[in-house]
Amino acid sequence: MTTKGALPYHALIWLAVATFSTGIDGYVLAGLLPTIAGELTVTEALAGQLVSIFALTSALAAPVLGAATSGWERRRTIGLSLAVFVIGNLLTAVAPNYPIALSGRVVAALGASLMNAAISGYVIHLVPERHRGKALSFVLGGWMTATALGVPVGLVLGQSSWRFPLIMVSVVGAIALVGILIKLPHLELPASTLAQRLRPLRQVRLVSGLLVSTGILCASYTCFTYAVLILGPSHPAGWMIILIMFGYGLASLVGNTFTGRLADRFGAVRVLSIILAGLFLNSVLGAVTFAFAPLAVIAVLGLVWFFLAGVGNGGAAVPQQARLASMAPESAAIVMALNGSAISLGSALGGGLGGVALTAGVQPGGLLVVAAAVLAATLILHTLVTLAQARHASVSPGNAVSQ
C-alpha cells in the first residue's frame, strides 16, 4: 500500500490525461453525426447511437469488470484497460461499415469502464482522506478539460474525416498509458466480489441519489448528442459549431471549478438543488425560444441556453459526488464506481431518448422539451432524496449530509 502523504500530482496528472482521452471520446462524435451518417449510410439518429452504445456498455460493464479485477494490482489494471480503450478507438477509426464501428465502440467502452472504476478506487486509496475531494476534482478535471479543448480540436480534424478525431483519442490514450506505467505507484487493494460492490445498492436513499446522476446526464445527452442538429439551422457554418462546442466546454469547466468551492462553503446539497432548478428553468426557456422565436433570436438565445446548460452540467458533478460519498462514507470507492455507471447509463439513455424522439418526428429543437421533462422528474427525485437523508441524519447525526 502506498504511503499516504502529500497530494501526488506527478502521478495524478497521468490519470487526468487518461480521463481527458475518455472525455474527448465521449463528446467529439456528437459534433460529427451528419458526416458519420453519410459515410456509414445510416440515419443521423442511428449514428448518434455510437455515442449511446459507448455509454450504455460503460454503465453495465463497470461494476462487473471492477469486481472481476478487484484483486489485480491497480496500476496494471488501469494500464490494461487503457490499452483496450485505445484498441477499441482504432477499430472504430478504421471501420468500413456501421456494425464494425459499433463493435469498436463497445470494445473502447469496456476499456474505459474498467479504467474509470479503477481510477476512482485508486485515487481514494492513494491520497490522504483530507485531500480526496481535491484529488478527485483534479482527475475529473481531465474529463472537463476534454470538453473545452479536445472537442473543438477533434471537430477541426473531423472536417476532413470523422475518423481523425478517434485516432487523436488513441494517441492521447497511448501517451497517458506510457505516463501511467512510468509514474504511477503500485497499489494493491483487497479483492471484492460483485455482491460486495453492489451492497450499497441495498440502500434506497443511495440508489435514488445515483438516479439523480442518471437524470442529469440523460437530460444533458438528450440535447448534447444532437447539438449540431439543434443549433445548425441558426449557425450553419462549420466554424460556428466548432466555436460553440469550444464555448460549451469552457462553460462546463467553469461550472466544475466554481461549484466545488461553493459546495465547500454552502453545502453540496444546497448547491446541487440550485443547479438542478437552474437547469430545468434553462431548458424550459430554451424550449420556448426554439418553438416560437424567429431564427435571429434563436441564434442568440439558443447560445445562452447551450452555454448555461454547460455550466450546470459541468457544475453538478462535484457536489453530486460529495453528496453521494457522504451518504455511504464507508463505501466511498464503490459508490464512486457506481456513480460512474449511473452517469454512463444517463448518457446512454439521453442519446437513445433523443434518437427515438427524432425518429418519431420531433424537431431537433423539441428535444429541449424532452430534456425539461427529464429534469423535472430528476428535481423531484432529488428533493425526495434530500428529505429522506435529512430524516436519516436526524436519527444518525454522524451520517448527516452537509446542507
| Secondary structure: number of strands | 0
Count of individual helical segments: 17
Roughly how many Å is the radius of gyration?
20 Å
The backbone outline, from C-alpha atoms, is globular
Main sheet overview: none
Q: Extract low-pLDDT stretches.
A: 399-403
Structural class: mainly alpha
Q: What gap, in angstroms, lies between the N and C termini?
A: 34 Å
Please indicate the percent range of residues in DSSP E strands (runs of 2 or more): under 5%
Helical amount: over 70%
Task: Report mean pLDDT, rounded to a whole number.
Answer: 84
Give the H and E element order. HHHHHHHHHHHHHHHHH
Would you summarize the structure shown here?
With 403 residues, the chain is an all-alpha fold. It has helices at 9-27, 33-40, 44-47, 49-68, 74-93, 98-126, 132-158, 163-183, 194-198, 204-224, 227-231, 238-266, 268-292, 295-315, 317-327, 332-359, 367-395.
Structure report:
α4 crosses α6, α7 runs antiparallel to α12 and α13 runs antiparallel to α17. With 403 residues, the protein is mainly α. The C terminus is likely disordered. The protein has 17 helices and no strands.
